[in-house]
Amino acid sequence: MLTGTIKAEFPEDLPARLIRGELTLARVFGLDDDALYEIAQVGYGLFNSGNLREAKQIYSGLVAADPYDSVFHCHLAAVHHSLGELDHAFRHYTEALKLNWANVDALVGLGEIQLSRGDLAAGISSLKQAIEIDPSMQRARALLRANS
Description:
By secondary structure, this protein is mostly helical. Helix content is 70%, strand content 0%.
């Protein structure tokens, strides 16, 4: 059991660099993309096994560590979506798309929420965009068929 504290020295301009997006918390603490994606695999396993609250914790941490990663936002959105937390899911799908407009999983998730909220034009547009990017996107095709 650890009983001490860890004291690290950080540059004075660290908060400003974080705010400007020049640096992420992941980099401050020495986590590279490989380490972050290993952690994401744990979250993915939790998500697929139905441990949604635990998966949410993992992906929330990953988004905090690297808020510029589209995949982390998309996976956090999927967890929120599965939990019925649609406002949070919508926000993270949208953020994922700001970071990578071609994230087809985010497009489909966003489209599904738009359809469920009665915004058919936006939902159909999101799903069609996903299919244009990835013609094999069966979930988008099924949602379009169900809403035609």
